[in-house]
Amino acid sequence: MQPCPICKEEFELQPQACLQAFEKFTNKKTCPLCRKNQYQTRVIHDGSRLFRIKCATRIQAYWRGFIVRKWYKNLRKIVPPTDAKLRRKFFEEKFTEISHRILCSYNTNIDELFSEIDLCLAVNRSILQQLDDRCGHEMTEEDWEKIQVQAAHREIYECSICLTPLSLHADCQQAAVETSSQRPRKTVLLSCAHLFHHACLLALEEFSLGDNAPFHACPLCRSCYQKKILEC
User: Fold this and answer.
1) Domain membership of residue 143 as a residue range
2) Is there a domain that residue 57 lies in?
3) Closest CA to 192 of 184, 201, 183
4) Predicted pLDDT of residue 95
5) Distance between CA atoms of 185 and 176, rounded to whole angstroms?
6) Does the keyword Metal-binding apply (predicted)?
7) Is 70 exposed, middle or buried (0-12, 13-18, 19+ CB in 10 A)?
């Protein structure tokens, strides 16, 4: 549809505004195109309907453009460009943004930092003290006798490391002598009432923690221990 011949604009929701203004300006009722006098008018709403459709189309186009531009801006913030200069600028901006976040989140309260360090040191001291109380004190012969009785009640007949018989019991010792001409290996008793071959335990300690480690963990119960070599 062609625009209004008077104002050269699209037909909007007020169809008679331009014609009434033209008649008022000329002081006579004459057609602006053919100059015919005494014409009759009839209001039709096709122009207003088309105007509504065109406005709705423009609104939809603007909204789609806004969504696409917003999506593209977010995409530019995530995906680096392929051009070398733009790519370098992209990573410089990212690095600046990350540095700014770190500086904003950095807490400069020195007293709180020192109090947190003191708390961590106190917790570490308490843990080391508990470990020292459990593994650092010397055990008496009575304690070893009680532990040996407890190990005897468990009926441990073989080393849990090499799965061969221990040389502590008479029957196992006799079986070891019958099957091999070598001397039986020494048996060691741990403070957690577990029995192992002395050589097996030394090899395990050297393999797991090293010779200079202050404490070792039992292969079965994972507790720190003291050890005593038993006489066969």
Assistant:
1) 138-230
2) no
3) 201
4) 87
5) 10
6) yes
7) exposed
Same domain, 100 and 154: no
Q: Distance between CA 210 and CA 17 in Å, rounded?
A: 100
What's the token pair of residue 148?
């040996």
| pLDDT the model gives residue 176 | 47
Q: Does 66 map to a domain?
A: no
The token duo for 91 is: 């990573």
C-alpha 136 chain-centroid distance: 40
How many domains in the chain?
A: 2
Q: Quote the pTM value.
A: 0.39
Whole-angstrom distance, CA of residue 224 vs CA of residue 40 = 112
Q: Give the model's pLDDT for residue 67.
A: 95
Same domain, 151 and 209: yes
Looking at the structure, tell me whether residues 150 and 207 fall in a common domain: yes
